[in-house]
# Entry
Amino acid sequence: MILFLTEISALKSFSVDFPVSREPRPEDNVELSLLRQCLENAMASELSPHERDVLRLRLGLDDGQSRSVREVVEVCGGGIRAADVRSAERRAFKKLRAPSSLEAHHLSDYMHMAGLDGMEFNMYEKRR
# Structure
């Protein structure tokens, strides 16, 4: 099984890459479920409620439908600005990418399986 991160979906969504010709195996589903649990635990302990809400909406973690910054603002009733959404998202990713967070919540195990290391995340931060 190959796990990969897409950058805007970065920790936003871990995906399992299944060959087109076969159905996911039960162990693939278990692995994905464990990964989701690790991510949920990390978000619960590392992020503020506002940051969690923004990531859930942006990444579609609850309903599978990712939303644009503008859509997040609309869902929040216009009570926040687009810059606030972007800022909360940036803070959340920074917290989740911190080495202590990755290790504490076993997310580094998945990153290693995906062939990603801290260097790639640092490069992403510099591009923003």
